[in-house]
Specification:
Largest sheet: 5 strands, antiparallel
Number of strands: 28
Distance between the termini: 136 Å
Number of helices: 3
Radius of gyration: 38 Å
Structural class: mainly beta
Length: 388
């Protein structure tokens, strides 16, 4: 009775050996790759061992969570040929040696799993093919494409008598994986916080928050927000720096801003010699210094209302349409302000007579009255008759 189990074991081993001889020996594995940077050349190498006769090697790209496998390259051992399954305009891969595929310029869209399938002929019958496969995940990184520091809620007014919160936003876009911005207020750098790291003085108290927004191309936009109670006396001309480090960057990216109150607005008036009935534009052309954040502008007429009857106008440019003679000598004030401070500048409007508009023919809004219209028509007819 004891000989029966031993006999069975011998039979099983013999059958296994026969099957092994019939099927052949085949193992497949793919060399792992570290994360690669978009734009680099990447080689996917499929290693296999077999004592059988090879039929084919097929590379697949796996998408939609493994539900779809797209052929990208095939090596046909029967005819010793290889060919791509990609359209000509998308063909970017080369078969280096049978089982090795090279992507000369990898893209973010190439990120994901890949499989290498190797097939050999069954020794028992040439109609069957024995398959084995290996897989790899290609992790494609991308460096951030831009970095900037902006002020939230701008333009915003200046308040001399009431404390107000102020927020700086560091925006880093285009990175994969998500960038890690670090920011600092220079000098007096004594406190640091991670992701992102804001470096600032001990006073005042800073509040930190951040957000991530994934994009359809696989990259991530990161926003780091720093909020504190603004002190114009201390924070005016304070330098803030935002720096981002990323594994796809050889050196950090950086953006800087300096908080500065507006000073010395430069006013430009067109036309420089205004006449009755002209449309006059008064524009803030710039400042004596670089201003951050963006200021807001308020226009008023000293001692009276604006031409349209309003008390003030918000905007960088004030437009006075069809100015009447009564505006001659009027003074206009432009107030430019941001959370760091405010400044006023004045300009006087000089209105000259218009020879085409006799005195007293324009109405209070600068429009030409009936008499002036008739005179204009007569002058126009005279010019036409002279030309004919």
């Amino acid at each position: 009775m004891r000989a029966v189990p031993s006999l069975r074991r011998c039979v099983c081993l013999l059958l296994a050996a026969i099957l092994d001889l019939a099927c052949g020996y085949l193992t497949v594995n793919i060399e792992p790759l570290p994360p690669v940077v978009a734009g680099d050349a990447v080689t996917l190498k499929c290693n296999f061992k077999t004592d059988g006769r090879m039929r084919e090697i097929v590379w697949y790209r796996v998408t939609d969570g493994g539900t779809i496998k797209q052929k990208i390259f095939t090596f046909d051992a029967m005819f010793s040929t290889n060919y791509s399954h990609m359209e000509n305009y998308r063909k970017r891969e080369d078969l280096v040696y049978q089982s090795t595929v090279r992507l000369p310029e990898v893209r973010i869209s190439d990120n994901g799993p890949y499989e290498c399938h190797v097939g050999i002929y069954d020794r028992a019958t040439r109609e069957k093919v024995v398959l084995a496969s290996g897989n790899i995940f290609l992790n494609v990184m991308a460096p951030p494409t831009s970095i900037e520091v902006v002020a939230a809620d701008t333009p915003a007014p200046f308040s001399r008598y009431q404390a107000q919160n102020f927020t700086l936003v560091c925006i880093v876009s285009g990175g994969k994986p998500a960038p890690m911005p670090t920011t600092e207020n220079i000098p007096e750098t004594v406190v640091s916080r991670e992701f992102p790291r804001w470096v600032h003085s001990a006073e005042p108290t800073y509040f930190l928050r951040h957000s991530r927004t994934p994009s359809s191309d696989g990259t991530v936009e990161v926003r780091a927000l720093l909020t504190w109670t603004l002190n114009p006396q201390i924070d005016n001309e304070a330098l803030f720096s935002c720096e981002v480090k990323h594994p796809a960057l050889s050196m950090p990216m950086q953006a800087e801003v300096t908080l500065v109150a507006p000073k010395g607005p430069k006013i430009v008036m067109t036309p420089s010699r205004a006449r009755v009935g002209d449309t006059v534009r008064i524009l803030v052309h710039g400042f004596q210094n670089e201003v951050f954040p963006e200021p807001m502008f308020t226009w008023t007429r000293v001692g009276s209302r604006l031409l349209d009857g309003s008390a003030e106008f918000d905007g960088k440019e004030l437009v006075l349409e069809r100015v009447p003679a009564e505006l001659n000598g009027s003074m206009y004030r432009c107030t430019a302000q941001n959370p760091l401070g405010s400044t006023d500048t004045h300009t006087r409007l000089i209105v000259f007579e218009n020879p085409n508009i006799p005195r007293g023919t324009e109405d209070s809004n600068g429009s030409i009255g009936p008499t002036g219209a008739r005179l204009t028509l007569v002058l126009a007819l005279t010019v036409i008759l002279e030309l004919t």
